[in-house]
Amino acid sequence: MPDDSIAEVLDVLSDDGTVIGTASRREVHRNGLWHRTFHALVVRPGLPARVVLQRRAATSFFAGRLDFTASGHLAAGEQPIDGIRELEEEVGLSVNPVDLTSVGVHRIVDHRDGITNREQVHVFFVRSDLALDRFTPDPAEVSSLVEVGIGALLTLVDPANDTTRVDVREWAPGSTVSETTIGPDDLMPGYTGYLIKTLIMAERFAAGRSPIAI
Known about the structure:
Elements: H1 4-7, E1 9-13, E2 19-24, H2 25-30, E3 34-43, E4 50-56, E5 66-67, E6 70-73, H3 85-91, E7 101-112, E8 115-127, E9 142-149, H4 150-157, E10 166-171, E11 178-182, H5 192-206
Helix pairs in contact: 4-5
């Protein structure tokens, strides 16, 4: 099987986001170069505010962890809005670009398995009331979808609280939507601060108020 990290070419960025060259995805990670990625969060319209997260497939990095609804790398020459394809590819949600709301750029730096990852993440919200079991997730990337109240999730990630489990609705293809719970070990590692900021903005977005840029 071909190595996609060699074939995939990404823009290399300066600290301020200016494109200064290109490199393969493998080179970008091996050399710790800044590059662009896309994160999209589905926010349910109305209150109480809720979001839809994906549970990463067993073959993915951070297998089984809950992540944004869709995410991915932006190829060389692409603009942040082009990442909209990830929503359709990963969870089967077709969205018009005008329905995406940009909430800014977040920087992620992490080190794992000999890789230094430096991402400038372009973050978008999209409103959708599509039922969980009407999504069509790609099983190679997504094992299930989880709908959770923003207030409950903020309680779970707030270090000042001792909440260990919160109620969610979860659905995997071939099953029915179930009521279950999640805990801190279900969440992506190193995302606490990022998640808190994003969820506070998503709550405003769900209520029809202007989100604050990250």
